[in-house]
Amino acid sequence: MSTTYRSVAWNLNKRRYDTIALGAIAGFLAVAIGVQAFLRPELTIETLLIRALGATAFTLLNVILCIGPLARLDRRFLPLLYNRRHLGVMMFTLALGHGLFSIVQFHAVGTLNPLVSVLVSNDRYGTIAQLPFQPFGLAALGILFLMAATSHDFWLHNLTAPVWKALHMCVYVAYTLIVAHVIFGVLQQEVSPWLGWSLSGAVLTVFTLHLAAARRESAADRENRNSNGDGFVDVCGVDEIPEKRAVVTCVSGERVAVFRYDGRISALSNVCQHQNGPLGEGRIVNGCVVCPWHGYEYQPATGASPAPFTEKIPTFDVRVQGGRVLVHPQPHAPGTRVEPAHVAEARTA
Ligand code: HEM
Ligand code: FES
Question: Counting CB atoms within 10 angstroms of each CB, which of 52, 102, 165, 318 has the fewest?
Fold first, then answer.
């Protein structure tokens, strides 16, 4: 967390993450160039580079899109989520290299503006087999640029989280455009069948993982209707909440994380202010709930980040009765202090 905007708040984990990512990208690029050069010795170095950069960017985009659902399905993938935005910027840089080399190679020597040339040099828009595929790539690159340019927390705070999130959902539009770019490109180029197979495999993997994660999420969004008559809903037994961890329930259409810590119980919104991370999957460290995605912290009784930070999330009334944890579905304004319930009440009730 940071109260001011530095270009990047580097730490050892981020450096390690980026070093591994850059190493993997360099390795993939080298293999992609080497294999093509071996199989097709007649290809020029420019063509090799264009293809390898395009293939690496697309592969990385698939990896980026799989990280979200994988982290929802299995906590062991959470560390990959931590610095995913850097992967996005790396992917955009590769895609930009691919686009620029393509424009220089195919569109820079004529009399037309190279960008106009991408759109009009092939005008067979009425066909399927010859449909211009490069405009799809150009449109995708425009979207990826917008996303890379606004990836920093400065934009997240200034655009507000919902606008930023909506903007970054456009990655799926870019993905669709790139899939179209590659499909229509493959129809027109002499490329090996592995490209078609890897494309289908990649799209199927992304789709299946999103479907599996959506099914898991929709189960978590099932409304808790165990009302006890005075407006509170029954969440679980006290002993079902592991120490310094939470049980998540859904009340009034909102996910609520009910934490147990040091003999107390507090209920707060499950949604992190940063990028909607699932706070209920985090744990309490040094008295604060720590978001499992990028480490934002909140005090469990107030929902407010410790000073000097200013993030706040809604809190909920909570009660312990007969060994059961009860939560009131009406949220308090973000940052409102709510007296924690005491686990001891469960033993005496
Ligand atoms: C200005 C934007 C773009 C232009 C002008 C462009 C142009 C091209 C061209 C000419 C090819 C065929 C290369 C060949 O077979 O010799 C190609 C293929 C490809 N492009 Fe793009 N592209 C653009 C954007 C993108 C973006 C944003 C991505 C993905 C992130 C992408 C991914 C690919 C892939 C995966 C291939 C197939 C590579 C292969 O044959 O192994 N392109 N593109
Ligand atoms: S989503 Fe980034 S810290 Fe919570």
Answer: 165
